Structures are given as structure tokens and as C-alpha cells.
Amino acid sequence: MLRIMHKSKIHGARVTEANLNYRGSITIDKRFMELANIVENEKVLVVNINTGDRFETYVIEGEYGSGVICLNGAAARLVQCGDSVIIISFGIYDDSELENFKAKLVFIDSNENEVNCIIDENQ
């Protein structure tokens, strides 16, 4: 049996930009992406902590170390600059892969958009 599982997340990042005049997606600091094992064009679920809105989009790589979290296109209407978001990625796994599987969690200090804590439960 294949299961769709929570693979990783970036928790508590602050939205730094909202660009309505773009075709769509979320731009994420490459450092955050690397720490959370998220790659460019990967599908993600974005949860706006401030409003409870949830939506899916795909990832565009932002400048390494910039702290950028930018919602583009229609998704820009679902956030305000300064909102905190959770960005969740998923993977499809066979039951045999789940025996020792744990999600990778990256917690962001939303005041500075700096990494606060990384939990790699696979280690």
C-alpha cells in the first residue's frame, strides 16, 4: 500500500512579500528549502496561521539566506505581509519505507525569519 505522508515543514515563517502580478507559486529562501528537504517546483500546502486559510502551490527557489517568503499570483490574495505561515511538503511512501520514517521540521523565528530549531527525527 502507498501512503501520502507529511515529509517536512517550515513552521512559523513570516511572509515578506505578496506579488499578485506573477503567474503563481511561493518563493522560499533556498536555505529554508535545503533544511526542510524541499526542492524547486515541489508541491506544498501553505497554511496561513493568522487567518487559517490553506492552499496548495509549488515552490520557487529564493535567494539563499534572504529570509524571503513571497506568495505569488492568486495566492498573494490569501496573505498579508507579516503573516506567519506553515509550509508543508508531502511524500508518497510504501509501508516498508515507514518503519523508521520521521518528518523533518524546521521552525522559524518569525520576528527575524531566522531558523530557530531543526528537528530531523530520522537521526
How is this structure best described in words?
It catalyses: L-aspartate + H(+) = beta-alanine + CO2. Its EC number is 4.1.1.11. Keywords: Autocatalytic cleavage, Cytoplasm, Decarboxylase, Lyase, Pantothenate biosynthesis, Pyruvate, Schiff base, Zymogen. Pfam families: Asp_decarbox. Heterooctamer of four alpha and four beta subunits. With 123 residues, the protein is mainly β. It has a single domain, classed as Barwin-like endoglucanases (Beta Barrel). Helix content is 6%, strand content 52%. Strands 2-6-3-5-4-7-1-8-9 form a 9-stranded mixed beta sheet. A hairpin with a 4-residue loop joins strand 8 and strand 9. The radius of gyration is 14 Å and the shape is globular. It starts with a strand and ends with a strand. The model has no long low-confidence stretch (mean pLDDT 91).
Would you kindly provide a brief summary of this structure?
The chain is mainly beta. The chain has one helix and nine strands; from the N terminus they run E-E-E-H-E-E-E-E-E-E. It has a single domain, classed as Beta Barrel (Barwin-like endoglucanases), CATH 2.40.40.
